[in-house]
């Protein structure tokens, strides 16, 4: 399996996939810079008058519901339809779906317009979507239960897609396969946007590499490794400096690092 | 009084208050990162379909009118109503109310939907709201008059709330009390967002500490102290580096620093 | 000609022009910080209820179509009308006009409400607007053809304005004059926002210096020089650190640097 990860990274570097993103206003700049750092080409195209056609030109579609305006919501329906018609991967980041009923309603509606290739949330969001009781505070998950794998597998079966739940240990599952990613650092929770950047990277890798399960694991591992290195190079616990170094380190993750330092437990 | 400030900081660190923010697009990421740096939990929830319920779950509501879209304006009416019904503190940042008539009209309307706990603007904005002649340029105050205290007190009485005016010296007043904060650095005017971050921090402190006057002073002092230290650690007058260090230093402000370095003049 | 550039920079530093910006959500913070770094005063005022009056108070208007919401589109029509009525320079950044038909339609409509002083795009965008075949990928130009000068001159004649096309070599032309700017670094393509920041700077310089051709060259040269220096001070190819240093270096560009290091080829 591990060679899938290095192959996914190679594909990303070679193909410079165009990632069409409809995403939240808080971290949109971080998403663009993290995609550029790993070698993808971000395009935030969010107007209802633009997205149906644009989504059909892209390598993947990233839908992040964080600060979904009414106009973005309409655009999301059009974009997922366009992408699905062309078989382009769609990555859903169901931000705050455990705390805000409109998010869940929108996700259900989106499912009638197209299909998700990957759903990537924090554990609270994944559990909420899977219909399980979840502990959330605003956009944050307070959940560190050991029912995460089950929640991912159940949601993956329900939607016929890959599901990833981020947390201290990241979990990735599809109908058959599952794994745990044990890299990362708590510093990623001390800045805004790490979850969104991880979601954007999943879209980047899926736009370049066909196996969505492998692409998702490679993306989350890339994020976690960059976080570990950024913590080392930024000298500890300084969130402002850490954030700049995180983008630096995203640009430096390579196959050797994945081989040497990646701690993925295949289940 | 000074022990109120350290107590407010302690409360913030212990309670991780959820700050519901409806804020401008320019500095929304800075607001989120500054809240995270001091230990609060930001949630930018701005859709009219979401805010009435969400505002009732939060520790405080931060309304920043900087780039108020029509959808945000509608959301603001719903959110202040929700927060006020539950007795949750509401912090208003009346960005550009001296230069743009719609801002002032919106603020007056907001006052019919709920009440403000704190109004925090720059001196020009506070004077404009208090009905005094103000010198502004776009979003900036050109005012350094010595009628600032009077303006704050007058506005505080008019709205029955705490009023803070930022500038070379920050002024905080409510109906009875007033103080001047003499910390800070001119570098805070050389980046965008220092005013917004200060407003977001006021919301953070008010979400954790009941005395809104003390919470506001503690928040503005935290911002000013972090600015001073960031200028020292970033080696002077480099705005890009300063900005990253500002977030770093916000995460490091503690009770000892407030005790040692805070220059608050209680009137 | 070179003394025009130092004079434009002097004017900018002396006048602190107010730049009214309607711009995309991805890089709006970068635009504000880069304008502040060089000494201009940014104001992002984008609500249809606000812009007609506000545009008439500003030193220049920057219209960037990157993530144009419907509300921004309406605001853009009102703002260009207001600015044009007062003879205030209007700078158009036609982001993605080669890839998205709505952008081109909006630009044509804008031309009925007012006039452009400068159109600044990447080469692909300029060619698309000039009616030439352009190679684009999302928001990026893949074009490095040697018909750039011709495209700029043709578009400049069609709109009666200055046209700038950024790329490895930047090209600036109006009806009579033209030049090439040979400074810059590839690192500017490894972060998001360099093109937008350059456009914002053009608006800053045009708000302070009457000759729009000279102001545009000075702005693009300032950006390219800051990029070169930021690459040196940030130690190479680290996009997160580079980005912070870019803002630092923008604040340090001065007349001596332009004299010594600027490589402008006047045609």
UniProtKB/TrEMBL annotation, chains A, B, C:
<protein>
    <recommendedName>
        <fullName>hydroxyethylthiazole kinase</fullName>
        <ecNumber>2.7.1.50</ecNumber>
    </recommendedName>
</protein>
<keyword id="KW-0547">Nucleotide-binding</keyword>
<keyword id="KW-0460">Magnesium</keyword>
<comment type="pathway">
    <text>Cofactor biosynthesis; thiamine diphosphate biosynthesis; 4-methyl-5-(2-phosphoethyl)-thiazole from 5-(2-hydroxyethyl)-4-methylthiazole: step 1/1.</text>
</comment>
<keyword id="KW-0067">ATP-binding</keyword>
<dbReference type="GO" id="GO:0005524">
    <property type="term" value="F:ATP binding"/>
</dbReference>
<dbReference type="GO" id="GO:0009228">
    <property type="term" value="P:thiamine biosynthetic process"/>
</dbReference>
<dbReference type="InterPro" id="IPR029056">
    <property type="entry name" value="Ribokinase-like"/>
</dbReference>
<keyword id="KW-0418">Kinase</keyword>
<dbReference type="Pfam" id="PF02110">
    <property type="entry name" value="HK"/>
</dbReference>
<dbReference type="GO" id="GO:0004417">
    <property type="term" value="F:hydroxyethylthiazole kinase activity"/>
</dbReference>
<dbReference type="InterPro" id="IPR000417">
    <property type="entry name" value="Hyethyz_kinase"/>
</dbReference>
<keyword id="KW-0784">Thiamine biosynthesis</keyword>
<dbReference type="GO" id="GO:0000287">
    <property type="term" value="F:magnesium ion binding"/>
</dbReference>
<keyword id="KW-0808">Transferase</keyword>
<dbReference type="GO" id="GO:0009229">
    <property type="term" value="P:thiamine diphosphate biosynthetic process"/>
</dbReference>
<keyword id="KW-0479">Metal-binding</keyword>
């Amino acid at each position: 399996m591990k060679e899938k990860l290095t192959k996914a990274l190679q594909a990303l570097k070679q193909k410079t996939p165009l990632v069409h993103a409809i995403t939240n206003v808080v971290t949109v700049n971080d998403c663009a810079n993290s995609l550029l750092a790993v070698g993808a080409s971000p395009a935030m195209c969010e107007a209802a008058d633009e997205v149906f056609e644009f989504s059909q030109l892209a390598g993947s579609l990233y839908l992040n519901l964080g600060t979904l305006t009414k106009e973005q919501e309409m655009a999301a329906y059009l974009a997922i339809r366009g992408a699905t018609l062309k078989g382009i991967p769609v990555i859903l980041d169901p931000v705050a779906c455990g705390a805000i009923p409109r998010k869940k309603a929108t996700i259900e509606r989106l499912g009638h317009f197209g299909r998700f290739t990957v759903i990537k949330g924090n554990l609270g969001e994944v559990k909420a979507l899977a219909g399980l009781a979840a502990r959330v505070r605003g956009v944050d998950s307070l959940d560190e239960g050991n029912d995460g794998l089950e929640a991912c597998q159940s949601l993956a079966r329900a939607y016929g897609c890959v599901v990833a739940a981020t947390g201290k240990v990241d979990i990735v599952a599809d109908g058959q396969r599952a794994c745990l990613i044990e890299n990362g650092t708590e510093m990623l929770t001390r800045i805004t946007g790490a979850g969104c950047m991880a979601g954007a990277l999943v879209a980047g890798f899926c736009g370049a590499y066909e196996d969505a399960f492998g692409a998702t694991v490679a993306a989350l591992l890339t994020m976690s490794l960059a976080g570990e290195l950024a913590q080392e190079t930024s000298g500890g616990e300084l969130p402002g400096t850490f954030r700049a170094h995180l983008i630096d380190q995203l640009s430096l993750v390579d196959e050797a690092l994945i081989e040497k330092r990646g701690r993925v437990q295949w289940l």
